[in-house]
Amino acid sequence: MLYGGDGDDVVTVDADDVVYSGGDGRDQLIYDATTDWSYAIASGDFEAIRSGSGNDSIYGSGADDEITLGAGHDFAQGYAGADEISGQNGNDTIQGFEGDDAIEGGAGVDHLYGGDGDDVVTVDADDAVYSGGTGRDALIYDASTDWSYAITSGDFEAVTSGSGNDSIYGSGSDDEITLGAGNDFAQGYSGADTLRGGLGYDELQGFEGDDLIEGGGGDDTLSGGSGGDVFVFAGAFGHDSIWDFAPGSAGDVIRLENGPFADFNAVMNAAVQDGENTLLTLDAERSITLLGVSKSALQQDDFVLI
C-alpha cells in the first residue's frame, strides 16, 4: 500500500501493488511492469500517469490529466479536462474526449481522436486514422516524409505540414495552413483562408474567398484566386511572384511589414515595368513580381506599409 500524502509525489507501482494514492499536490503514478494494466484516474488523486510496457488502458478524470503511454499497444481516453496524452512505440488508440486536448501518438500505427474541444493532434507518417472532432482543432504532421492531406470541413481547421515536400488542400471552411521546410503546395479552396509558406520554394493558391497569403522564406509562387486577398511580405521572404494580383477596385492588397518604403511614392520609385510584369525590388534578397500587371495600374490602396 503506497500513499504519497502532501506535496508533489512520484509513486511507482507494479502489478502486485493493491492500493496506491497520490494525496494532495500534483502527483505522478508510474506503472513499472510488463503485464497489461487498466487504470481509471480519480480526480484529485494522480494528475500524471505513465503506463508500462504491456498493452495498457488508461481512463482520464474530469481534471487536466497528463497520460504517457508505454511501449505496448495501448488505449487512452482523456475524458473532460484539458488533457495531454502521448503514445510511444506501440499501435495506440488515443481519445481526447472532452476538453482542449494535446494528443500525440508517437511511433507505431496509431488511431488518434480529439473529440470535443479545441484540440492539437500531432501525427507521423505511420498513423492510420486521425480526427479532430468538434471545436477548432489543429493537426501537426511531425515527419520528414512527403505528405498529401485534404482537410475535411468541420474536422481540422488548422494544419501544419512537416519538413518534406507536402501538398495540403483546404476545405469549404476558413482553413489555416502552415507549411514546413520543404518545397510545398497549398490550396485554400472556398473559405477565407490563411496560407503561410515555410523555408522552401512553395506554391500557395487561395482559390476562392478573401484569403491571407504569406510565402515565408524561399522563392514562392502566390495566387489569391477570386475574392479580395491580402499578400503578406515580411522578413527574408526571397523573390516571390503573384500570378493574379488584381489592383484597384478588385480588392487585392500587398502588405509590406518592416520594409524599406516610407510611403506609396517610395514604392512606385522602386517598382519598374518588366515586359508585361511589374517588378518591385526591396533589396538584393527580396523582390515581388506582379505577373501581368502594369505599373501604371497600381494605386495607393493596393499597399499597406507596416
TrEMBL record:
InterPro entries: Hemolysin-typ_Ca-bd_CS, Hemolysn_Ca-bd, RTX_toxin/Mannuronan_C5-epim, Serralysin-like_metalloprot_C. Its main location: secreted. Keywords: Secreted. It comes from the Bacteria. Gene3D superfamilies: Serralysin-like metalloprotease, C-terminal. It holds the Pfam family HemolysinCabind. GO terms for cellular component: extracellular region. It is found in: Secreted. GO terms for molecular function: calcium ion binding. This is Calcium-binding protein.
